Amino acid sequence: MGSLDAPRSYLFMLISVVTPVLNGARTIARTLDSIAAQKGEFEHIVMDAGSKDATESIVQTYLGRYPVQWHQKKDRSLYEGVWNGMQHARGDVLCYINADDQYLPWTLATVRAVFERNPDVEWITGVPGLLNESTGVGKLTPVIPIFPRSWIRRGWYSPGGMGGLQQESMFWRRSLWERSNPSEILLKYRLAADFNLWRRFAEHAELRTVNSLLASFTVSDGQLSWKQRDEYLRECGLRPDQNRRRTWMRLASRMACIAGQFRVLQVPWDDNR
């Protein structure tokens, strides 16, 4: 695994955000806008796989407006682009977001505050959110989710089981990244690297949920996980026709969420009024 630079002092906790992109001119501006609105110490690394559209020129208009970098390197998959981008990351906290998803204005400030208040926590996620690109309608999950570590490790959070874990809402400390040897996964899988990376993380740390919306996944036509669903399921270790007891697994997941609300990390909130 490639070595990343040493982390900075937590007094200046730096968050590194990586965005892999290939021909993302139609959507990348909204992702850039959402990251440009963030507060505090962060850097944004856009890793372009060789776009032939206006992606580069769009990113160039943001240079100097906020701490964004643009790099270009051919890759074989979106996840190799994530790996390439992480080689430029200097942050204490790491994450990646695709070029059609977006953060909320408070996302990185909330992430930083949660990690600073909880030094024993290495891996967090937020309340899952969705945005329908065609209608502009957004929605949240009705219950703050809890994700038992053993269930993640066993691969139960899959389309054929309890549903997936929202990638753009994931944030983790560099220490977890370094222990997990992520190159084995990011350079191997083309569609389901997220699923397999979370399983690897769960071997080393617990995923804790924060009681805040941190990102929204954009639902749109042509997404790879839907267009190539059978191959995606195979990379998850599932047969395309396998439902994996979906009904009872979803019910068990909901019951675990209700019973485990005491495990939810509260957003630090200093009310001086």
The strand line-up of the biggest sheet is 3-2-1-4-9-6-10
Continuous helix count: 11
Number-wise, the strands total 11
Give me the secondary-structure category. alpha/beta
Specify the CATH class: Alpha Beta
CATH domain topology: Spore Coat Polysaccharide Biosynthesis Protein SpsA, Chain A
Overall outline: globular
Q: For the CA atoms, what is the radius of gyration?
A: 18 Å
* Gap between N and C termini: 49 Å
CATH H-level superfamily? Spore Coat Polysaccharide Biosynthesis Protein SpsA, Chain A
Which CATH architecture is right? Answer: Alpha-Beta Complex
Describe the structure in your own words.
Helix content is 31%, strand content 19%. By secondary structure, it is α/β, with parallel strands linked by helices. It starts with 14 loop residues before the first strand and ends in a 14-residue tail after the last helix. The model is unreliable at 1-10 (pLDDT under 50). It is globular, with a radius of gyration of 18 Å. It contains eleven helices and eleven strands.
Q: What is the structure about, briefly put?
A:
With 273 residues, the chain is α/β, with parallel strands linked by helices. The chain has helices spanning 28-36, 55-60, 78-86, 107-117, 149-153, 174-179, 183-186, 193-202, 224-227, 229-235, 246-259, and strands at 15-21, 42-48, 68-72, 93-96, 102-103, 123-127, 129-132, 138-140, 171-173, 208-213, 215-219. It has a single domain (13-263), classed as Spore Coat Polysaccharide Biosynthesis Protein SpsA, Chain A (Alpha-Beta Complex), CATH 3.90.550.10.
